[in-house]
Amino acid sequence: MIIIVDLLLMLIDLTYAILAAVVQTFLRPRLKSIDGELCLITGAGGALGRLFALEFAKEGARLVLWDCNAAANERTAQLARELGVKVHAYTVDLSRRESIYETAGRVKTEVGDVSMLVNNAGVVAGRRLLECPDELLERTLLVNCHALFWMTKAFLPQMKAKNHGHIVTVASALGLFSTACVEDYCASKFGAVGFHESLTHELLAEELDGIKTTLVCPYIVDTGMFAGCEIRKELRSLIPPLEPLYTVQQSMTAILAEQQMICIPRLMYIPFLTRALLPWDANLATYRFMGGDKCMLPFIKNVEQRICNGHIKSS
Ligand SMILES: NC(=O)C1=CN([C@@H]2O[C@H](COP(=O)(O)OP(=O)(O)OC[C@H]3O[C@@H](n4cnc5c(N)ncnc54)[C@H](OP(=O)(O)O)[C@@H]3O)[C@@H](O)[C@H]2O)C=CC1
Ligand SMILES: CC1=C(/C=C/C(C)=C/C=C/C(C)=C/C=O)C(C)(C)CCC1
């Protein structure tokens, strides 16, 4: 008898959740205030990280900026300070667990409790699997995936103590569906998506409803990280690479609306769904038609060229 009641309650919840999601698609979401929150952004010296920092600064958040590139990070810090917020920049190597824990300890004593964590830093090997040095493949997993464990272990306890916080995972469309020649990246971003989902379940199971999570899954963004990656010529104007500022503004709206997940552009929900719904060969046929199967080849060529020209190291 109890199971029948539970089943009915579940069906009501399910219907409500679907209707709410449909309605929210058409309504302007209510955005929360983050004025005075302490927000830590990783990869803050990079393209999206810098824009995230400036958007959080505009919302009045105090910033803690992490990056391995001290000069680029300091530049972001300067730009954010010009917007009138307090900024603390730290040089850290996210591929090293001890570096994360040590820097997290310094943040706790020197600045205070972080209430918003934006795990944005990311890398890609950009080589064919069989030609890629092992260390480079490992680095992608360490930075894009393992660092999420250590960052969360370092900062979640403070959030739990107050039942207040927000953890943002910048993953990728390539964490939801995959393509050729980016095995390291897809493995790490699928890992990041799984991490985000499991953490979200854990927080809800513990009734820590004051700690929010948001997963950000963009398509190619014009930051240079995937320079050369392209789909079939005729379809490029239909799904062009994203502008970095647009990507960050869309992500900010999702974060401030406490949205669980965002695909940018929305069109990316389609390959995400079809990957699960259609047979492998049907997906393959659409990938081939759209040039999704070989989209990374010019990117890999580009990286090879930059190695030849000495612009990047071979290992
Ligand atoms: N660009 C794109 O097309 C897309 C990007 N994304 C994701 O968005 C995020 C930001 O990407 P984007 O801004 O384009 O990339 P960038 O390369 O511009 O920025 C990444 C930043 O992270 C830093 N970083 C790299 N490794 C480490 C490390 N071990 N420790 C500390 N910092 C590190 C980089 O430093 P340095 O430059 O010195 O290496 C850089 O400043 C990434 O997670 C990426 O995977 C998702 C979808 C599409
Ligand atoms: C595979 C594939 C596509 C191409 C996707 C691309 C090119 C994604 C690139 C993403 C990047 C660079 C993410 C970085 O984090 C299409 C055309 C949407 C159709 C469906 C299959």
TrEMBL record:
<keyword id="KW-0521">NADP</keyword>
<dbReference type="Pfam" id="PF00106">
    <property type="entry name" value="adh_short"/>
</dbReference>
<keyword id="KW-0472">Membrane</keyword>
<comment type="similarity">
    <text>Belongs to the short-chain dehydrogenases/reductases (SDR) family.</text>
</comment>
<comment type="function">
    <text>Catalyzes the reduction of all-trans-retinal to all-trans-retinol in the presence of NADPH.</text>
</comment>
<dbReference type="GO" id="GO:0016020">
    <property type="term" value="C:membrane"/>
</dbReference>
<feature type="transmembrane region" description="Helical">
    <location>
        <begin position="7"/>
        <end position="27"/>
    </location>
</feature>
<dbReference type="GO" id="GO:0005811">
    <property type="term" value="C:lipid droplet"/>
</dbReference>
<keyword id="KW-1133">Transmembrane helix</keyword>
<keyword id="KW-0560">Oxidoreductase</keyword>
<dbReference type="GO" id="GO:0052650">
    <property type="term" value="F:all-trans-retinol dehydrogenase (NADP+) activity"/>
</dbReference>
<keyword id="KW-0812">Transmembrane</keyword>
<protein>
    <recommendedName>
        <fullName>Short-chain dehydrogenase/reductase 3</fullName>
        <ecNumber>1.1.1.300</ecNumber>
    </recommendedName>
</protein>
<dbReference type="InterPro" id="IPR002347">
    <property type="entry name" value="SDR_fam"/>
</dbReference>
<keyword id="KW-0443">Lipid metabolism</keyword>
<dbReference type="InterPro" id="IPR036291">
    <property type="entry name" value="NAD(P)-bd_dom_sf"/>
</dbReference>
